[in-house]
Amino acid sequence: MGLINEGIKAKLKSIFSQLKDEITLKVFTQEIECPTCKDNTNFMQEISELSYKIKIDILNFVLNKDEAEKLKIDKIPATAVLGDKDYGIRFFGIPAGYEFNSFINAIKMVSLKDSGLREDIKQKVKTINKPVNIKVFVTLTCPYCPMAVEVAHKFAFENDNIISEMIDASEFPHLANRYGVYAVPKVVINEKISFEGAVPEDLFLNYILEAIK
Amino acid sequence: MNKKIYDLIILGCGPAGITAAIYSARKKIEFIVISKDVGGQTVYSSSVENYTGYQVITGAELALKFKEHLDMFDIDLRMPEIVKNVKKEGNIFVVTTDKDVYYSKSVIVSTGRIPRSLGLKEEEKFKGRGLTYCATCDAPLFKDKDVLVVGGGNSALDAVIQLTKYANNIYIVDIAEKLKADPIMIEKAFNYPKLKYFPNSKIIEILGEKFVEGIILENINDQSKTELKVQGIFVEIGSIPSSDFVENVANNKDGEIIVDCACRTSIEGLFAAGDVTNVFAKQVIIACGEGAKAAIAAFEYLIKSKD
């Protein structure tokens, strides 16, 4: 039996039938020292089997070091959602539980090329001309978390200077420790600004602007 | 006033609001739903075992089932949007949110409740620094750590049960003499060998530099004090109704909107349903029933006011 049950697969097939452009899941994995990598790879494989528009590229974290560096993948399991280009959308840890939603929405966003951001916010995001790294720490049992992840991914989609990382805090406890994650969602921007909670798009953007000042 | 006047506006999208919306959609009432989220407090329950038809279901899954049912209808759901004010001007209700102003002939308030805080001055400082109000969100972050749960009801015991999967020592602190959670929950929680229980006690101080490092407890009977080293504090001391945005409606002393057997309030055309009201027993299944009642009552009100 697979990781995704048949009922959900049927629903996903119908959601994916609306996809327009091809997308690629770049899945970084390793046989040793990564107990959940195999599950993540299997999960991504099951997802890609649900639509011919979802391609999958399974890469070894060590052997494909160049590719990992190019996409700024520094930990595994990792998945980057790419379309006609790299939009900076990353998932570190398996996007299961509540994060299933943010993952499916990332696929849809890249394929349909529509972030759904409010027009005025979109314009402001596009003007950002410095590199921005957004880390969104989550747990898979947190109902608020996908809201924060999705806003960060939307920003990344609209501007190539922005990379947005969903990070499962339980999967990377050392990072959770380093960044003092005691409540989720916790957002860290450019290692400088951090805040907790799923905030509205405009407030989130203000934090980014503050971080690159 | 050029803006559209709806027949009904439903505030909140938890069990009561969703059920009210399903009933209203089936009755073809012209309405919108305004809410900050979907599912309300239900999504934070790790397991619901008393909703008829489901022996065991997580709160999140149950909320998803509700949402799927709602999605069968073409419903205008304004989300995330936060209601700031509701008042009646003449025969029309004016609903002001953080995004817009809406007008309607009737309103159902089903905004539920928000968590009650400890009331300590250092509380704000430690929020997200070890002090948390969402056990289901944050329990996984406290792997092998010592934690404390404040409260004695079902939500407190539910937090304990969730924490047993991750934490090391778990303390439960309750101001009452006896835990008021369901015996089956208490039994489950006390199966955990590293659980220690402090009845008749309250937190008087949270200790720590940047993050929670411990607390001081006081026994309310003999004022004796105990210091405990903990890295996490999970507050589960009940909740307060989110009703303060409704102008001039009659509330009880707890701030709950007073409703009659048909979910009518002291304001004609304003209905309320679920945990925000003084209805007996705050349960998912009861909130659903109340939502149904409110929608039927609003429907009858709208027909009558047409005459």
Brief characterization of the structure:
The complex is a heterodimer of chains A (213) and B (307). With 213 residues, chain A is of the alpha/beta class.
Descriptive report:
- Chain A has helices spanning 6-16, 37-48, 65-70, 99-112, 119-126, 145-158, 173-178, 201-211, and strands at 23-29, 54-60, 78-82, 86-92, 132-138, 162-168, 186-189, 193-196.
- Chain A is of the alpha/beta class and 213 residues long.
- Chain A has one domain (6-211): Glutaredoxin (3-Layer(aba) Sandwich), CATH 3.40.30.
- An 8-stranded mixed beta sheet of chain A has the order 2-1-3-4-6-5-7-8.
- In chain A, α4 runs parallel beside α6.
- Chain A is globular, with a radius of gyration of 16 Å.
- Chain B has 307 residues and is an alpha/beta fold.
- Chain B folds into 2 domains: 5-115 and 239-306, 3-Layer(bba) Sandwich (FAD/NAD(P)-binding domain); 123-235, 3-Layer(bba) Sandwich (FAD/NAD(P)-binding domain).
- In chain B, 24% of the residues lie in helices and 26% in strands.
- Chain B has 7 helices and 17 strands.
- Chain B has helices at 15-26, 59-71, 123-126, 135-138, 154-163, 183-190, 284-306, and strands spanning 5-11, 31-34, 76-78, 83-89, 92-97, 101-109, 113-115, 131-132, 147-150, 170-173, 195-198, 201-207, 214-219, 225-229, 232-235, 239-241, 270-272.
- In chain B, the strands form 4 sheets. In chain B, strands 1, 2, 3, 4, 5, 6 and 17 form a 7-stranded mixed beta sheet that branches.
- The longest helix of chain B has 23 residues, at 284-306.
- Chain B is elongated.
- The model of chain B has no long low-confidence stretch (mean pLDDT 94).
- The A-B interface holds A 98, 139-145, 147, 169-170, 173, 176, 180-184, 186, 196-197, 200 and B 37, 39, 43-44, 60, 80, 127-130, 132, 134, 136-141, 143, 210-212, 232.
